[in-house]
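Lab notebook, design round three. We kept the backbone fixed and only want residue identities now. Task for the bench partner: fill in a sequence for the structure below.
Input structure tokens:
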């Protein structure tokens, strides 16, 4: 049935009431647990004094978030502000050479922050992969690129290369591996796009301009070479209607999100609590489910803020970067699940869609998903947790297709055709609720720990059955219906826009 199937307003109102009450009840349990655990010795490293006027300690378990917005805040603001100012001057004076200016500023910023040895490591990998691109053989580009990526993700090669970079500061490892691995992905995109070019090849200068665009360099997102090259080569720089207004609004929203997260961490210790399984095991099933879900929501907020800030700067440079990831609250389908849209787009273009084609063939889909998750495993860094994460998510993606194909068989298709659109939507939402929690449980093990994921699974599916299991499933069903309603409204709006465009 179509996505436009409508439900009665009173039914949707009931769903919204159920979800709101459930979130408040679960949140109150997490709040009480955070308050009671504020002075526990086991949480000494994760909970530190916060803003003094709140009179409460703060969850500081996320090392990266704390570093970005405390000790390295001024450095980041200075570097990115310099890029914006430098880019604006270049766009106004020499728009045809702005990519070169971005590259020069990026090289100088990398040199100043990480040193000349690090810059030489980056340039050496760029040179190797550019040399491979000259052969214009796709298989060779994949082999060379994945070998280069493995040299940073597999020991002892990663430690050997990082050992050349002297100095020590808190974010050095994050910047080292972030810059190197994103460089490899960009170089692979360059090589693969060069292999498609019918005549000649892009120059190494094009590769350096692409790789050393500072906002994307250390943390992404990855923008494929063909998109970046086309956009940065545009000489006529024009803004769309209300584009600057949208940029300003997004900048304010991201600043507000940063403040809101800091305030939230004074009252809800969602990152520190899972580190003590004995304490967490005393929580109610509702609070435990809320704790697992809130960890995924926070990871989305973190990615949305980081990529949002970077994307805002890229838009000031007249680029159209990959969008932030889709909110985890809106996800109940494995095929739409990702936390980095840039990497997701890269994998889809060069691996998943390339092998799986239209994703209707079960065997091709299996090969495409296994290959995609194998490369993702290498990208994340091979270890036990990543192996398990890749395995279960690969299974979830394929199982979703198998179930879809099964229910498309004649008897089921005819049965659904006899149902009303609203009833079909209700049945699909019931399955979507199960899928939603599969996504949560499969991803929480990578964000927290395998032990925490197993504890949540055992409590919700085994010890909590049937009361907690069915209650949480029904609440999730209500949430999926609200998501489907939003999708219905967006589909109608898109159709209206398309009709207006045809009339004009």
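Proposed sequence:
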């Amino acid at each position: 049935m179509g996505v436009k199937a409508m439900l009665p307003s009173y039914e949707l109102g009931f769903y919204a009431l159920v979800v709101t009450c459930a979130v408040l009840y679960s949140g109150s349990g997490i709040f009480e647990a955070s308050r009671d655990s504020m002075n526990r010795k086991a949480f000494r490293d994760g909970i530190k004094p916060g803003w003094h006027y709140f009179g409460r300690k703060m969850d500081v378990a996320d090392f990266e978030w704390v570093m970005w917005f405390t000790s390295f805040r001024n450095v980041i603001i200075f570097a990115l502000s310099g890029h914006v100012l430098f880019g604006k001057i270049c766009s106004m004076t020499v728009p045809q050479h702005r990519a070169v200016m971005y590259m020069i500023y990026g090289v100088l910023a990398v040199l100043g922050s990480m040193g000349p040895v690090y810059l030489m490591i980056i340039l050496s990998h760029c040179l190797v992969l550019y040399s491979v691109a000259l052969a214009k053989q796709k298989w060779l580009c994949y082999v060379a690129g994945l070998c280069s990526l493995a040299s940073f993700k597999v020991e002892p090669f990663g430690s050997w290369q990082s050992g050349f970079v002297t100095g020590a500061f808190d974010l050095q490892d994050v910047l080292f591996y972030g810059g190197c691995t994103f460089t490899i992905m960009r170089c692979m995109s360059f090589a693969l796009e060069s292999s498609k070019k019918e005549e000649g090849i892009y120059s190494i200068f094009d590769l350096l301009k692409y790789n050393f665009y500072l906002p994307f360099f250390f943390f992404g997102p990855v923008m494929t070479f063909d998109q970046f090259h086309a956009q940065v080569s545009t000489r006529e720089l024009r803004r769309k209607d209300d584009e600057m207004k949208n940029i300003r609004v997004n900048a304010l929203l991201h600043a507000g999100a940063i403040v809101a997260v800091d305030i939230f961490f004074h009252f809800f210790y969602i990152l520190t609590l899972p580190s003590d399984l004995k304490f967490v095991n005393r929580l109610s099933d509702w609070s435990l489910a809320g704790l697992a879900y809130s960890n995924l929501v926070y990871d989305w907020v973190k990615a949305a803020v980081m990529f949002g800030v970077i994307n805002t700067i890229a838009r000031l440079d007249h680029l159209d970067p990959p969008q932030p990831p889709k909110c985890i609250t809106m996800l109940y389908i494995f095929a739409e699940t990702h936390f980095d849209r840039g990497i997701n787009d890269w994998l889809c273009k060069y691996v998943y869609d390339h092998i799986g084609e239209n994703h209707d063939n079960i065997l091709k889909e299996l090969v495409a998903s296994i290959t995609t998750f194998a490369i993702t495993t290498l990208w994340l860094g091979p270890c036990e947790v990543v192996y398990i994460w890749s395995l279960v998510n690969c299974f979830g993606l394929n199982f979703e297709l198998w179930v879809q194909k099964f229910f498309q068989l004649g008897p089921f298709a005819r049965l659904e055709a006899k149902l009303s659109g609203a009833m079909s939507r209700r049945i699909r939402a019931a399955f979507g609720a199960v899928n939603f929690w599969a996504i949560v449980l499969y991803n929480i093990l990578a964000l927290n720990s395998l032990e925490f994921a197993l504890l949540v699974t055992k409590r919700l599916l085994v010890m909590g059955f049937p009361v907690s299991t069915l209650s949480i499933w029904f609440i999730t069903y209500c949430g999926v219906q609200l998501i489907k309603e939003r999708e219905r409204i967006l589909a109608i709006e898109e159709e209206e826009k398309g009709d207006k465009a045809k009339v004009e």
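Keep this in mind before ordering anything: The first strand starts at residue 47 and ends at 49.
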